[in-house]
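Handout for the seminar on molecular recognition.
Each group receives one record of this type.
Step one: identify the two inputs.
Step two: read the structure output and locate the region that could contact iron/sulfur cluster.
Step three: write two sentences on what you found, then compare them with the reference statements printed after the record.
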Amino acid sequence: MGMGASAMVERAFRRLWMRPGYVERADQLQLALLICDMIGSSTPSAFEAPTGLGKSLAALLPALVHAKLSEKRIAISTYTNVLAEQYWTKDLPLALSLMEEEAPDAGTARFLIGRSRYVCKAALQGQSDDVKHAVAMTERGTETEFRRLAPVRGREASTLWSLIQVPPVCPARACPFYDECYYYGARRSVENAKVVITNHSVLVTHGIMSSVDEEAKGLLGKLDHIIVDEAHDFAGAAQNGLEFDVNARALGTAISIAARASLALPQMESAYDRLKNGLEAVSRRLEARSLELPEGILTAVPQEVMDHPAVMGLKNEVALPAAIATVEEIEKVVERFLDAAELRLAGADMSAIDSTRNYIRWLTDFQSSCGRVFHPEGVAVSYVGPDGDGSRIRLDTVGLAEPLQNILWNRTPATLMSATLAVDGEFGFLERMTGFHPLYGEVMPSPFDHARDSCLYLPPRGKIPDPSQARADKSEPTYWAAIAQELGEIIETLGGGVLALFHSRVEMEQVARRMRLSPGLTLFVQPRAGALATGERFKEEQNASLFGLRSFWTGFDAPGNTLRCVALVRIPFEVPIDPPQLTRLAWMSTQGMDPFREHTLPTAKMTMRQGMGRLLRRAGDRGIVALLDPRLHTKRYGEEILLNFPEDMRRFSDLADAMGYLGMEGPSDILIGRPFHSQIAHRVCQVAEAAHVLREVQKNLLAVPLGVQ
Ligand code: SF4
């Protein structure tokens, strides 16, 4: 069977290469064949497969081939809903077409994302015909489809979506729309599918559900293999999936769920009123960021972590009694409601029992999760933190390795892959962070010719001050000015096309404030909301540059000449200021590990590689990676970080040399090279841009083309 599967995968790729616009890609085929073997032999494995290699097809084809040839059930998980939908709408049809007559039956592959991403048909009933029509036009009833077709845009669309999305819990089978429900329909179809396309958070939920109830088989049914794409984001998704919040929002959800349960049961009005009044009182205290609940760590486990000086330093003894009282109050209020519901359920008919079952289960789970806040397990921390204008009490699981082994890795063999998964060429960091131990691992070569199409530019020593020293000396304004000066020179020399990646908003805004650019050079600064739109505007303008934060370090795709330089402003060392980060580092030191070398530094190395990965996205792209942190020269770890970039990238300390090496044009070439009407259009755009800027500034937005100020 193994040979047959490999041969089928290879045949599919050969058909692809014969299609116009495709070329033979030995590396993509190699990855697909390896994944095919890993599925066939149920081998836990990890692959670093660089951008441009075509991972989706290399994952899908082997999965489909095994679905055709065996009884294996395989889940392919990726980070976001958008990426999962790309798999479903773009990559899957291509993969199936390449298999021709060898393709498995329709229905072999199915798609499932989180419930809140689907339209609830029951909630849709109260909406206008326009909204119903837009929903009817969707294929799967998902948020992405709906937003494309919705009669309104922006904030209005978000408000509308919040009214029609599937709620956290519903009567499911007892709902009159159950048979035609988008979400439950997708879940039913997944039960019989052999290939399931999903996202990380659904996979984590599946793992949690199947670990507590073997028979329930989780959300996705029993799986024989899992392929985790974008695996560098898996730990973050898992942490989100395992966290528990006590905040105004969670209490609001509990109230609305109790309201629905009481509607289905007789004589629950007073029990519901008591719950509502009780939880609303707690909610008001949380929303007012009550002085009783100052921020800080409440408890951490194991005990040696709690005793660690860094954790003790953030421990908030003052908040503890009030936090315990708050959570106990919630537990008590919910318990009284559940007791009343149990009494009513004893005499209720089947339909009432059916329609309240899920509500009661949700409230029971909520109550028991409240009970875990001060008695967490594993490596975890409970703390009071900000939540909008209010406060929240949060329980975070910090040590993910053991929980992930219990819910996923020990149950199902998995293949993890990403463009950046290895640090120093190995998977040790991934293993520490996720508890996943690959028996086979490979770092695939990049499909790009880094020596020919890219190079590193490091400003000469002494040109930029040491940022940590500047912070210690309180001379950060000088540092920001030096960065602004350097970025200004790069942008002017290249005529724009620069993506500068920052690690902190304060720093980004301080540098932006000091930028002085020639007219015609536009600078966008990532606003607090609407990063996506800013990214799109950057891509539309060849002379634009963009200052961005975390969301631009990963996943931002600007192929072609729009992006000619990625500037990594400073080494993105995580500053352990929040309780989960502090607890993680404290736990590592109690285990005899060096938190800096085994967590902070590898994380920075990986993030730097992700940032650099924005540069070459398609064949024909070329450009410069500017590394502005002087510590790359002066600290021992600097060279270690540099060794994580492709070894054949040339290093320059003079920007003109770097440009000359790549044969890049300066700004005059770009502007002079345009046809006359295009230059006029360019100026007209500037005027329009200036007007736009004034409007934006008036609205206090940050997308500011500083060159025209
Ligand atoms: S089953 Fe649940 S999600 Fe589906 S339509 Fe009914 S209430 Fe909405």
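Reference statements: The CA atoms of residues 189 and 293 lie 46 Å apart. The chain is about 55% helix and 10% strand.
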